[in-house]
């Protein structure tokens, strides 16, 4: 089977999904597409009336999933959605037509799939690959080889 290389030279690539390669350090657009911001909120205590007080978590970085973002990351929307379905990256959906990618989870996934660090991450018969294929109903997984811890 052919492997799909979307951008870059092999030394700059990581296998983000089975047979799907993308740049390790993608260029992420810096210009906001709209004026909306999403952040996580944590409870920081209560005020004098006993009402809970919340504060935003500044280190949570989310980006609206658009064609422009997918091109910058070097993957399709479908690949991002499948990675999220399998739990490899995080997507939030604050409204019916708005999907946000947690860029920190994307960076972590790039680190986890780096072929120099973890060359067997998507190896046939291994748990990560089988889980990705099974959860997304893509076929090609072998349940008799799917053992805990692999």
- Radius of gyration using CA atoms only: 18 Å
Uncertain regions spanning at least 5 consecutive residues: 1-9
Shape: elongated
Largest sheet: 3 strands, mixed
Integer count of domains: 1
Strand order of the largest sheet: 1-3-2
How do the SSEs run, as a string of H and E? Answer: EEEEEEHHEEHH
Write structural notes for this entry.
It is a single chain. The protein has 150 residues and is an alpha+beta fold. Helix content is 23%, strand content 25%. The longest helix has 10 residues, at 103-112.
Feature tags:
150 residues; alpha+beta; 25% strand; elongated
List the helices and strands and how they pair.
Blueprint: E1 4-5, E2 13-17, E3 20-23, E4 40-46, E5 52-57, E6 62-64, H1 67-73, H2 77-85, E7 91-95, E8 98-102, H3 103-112, H4 127-135
Parallel strand pairs: 1-3
Antiparallel strand pairs: 2-3, 4-5, 6-8, 7-8
Give me a quick take on this structure.
The protein has 150 residues and is an alpha+beta fold. It has one domain.
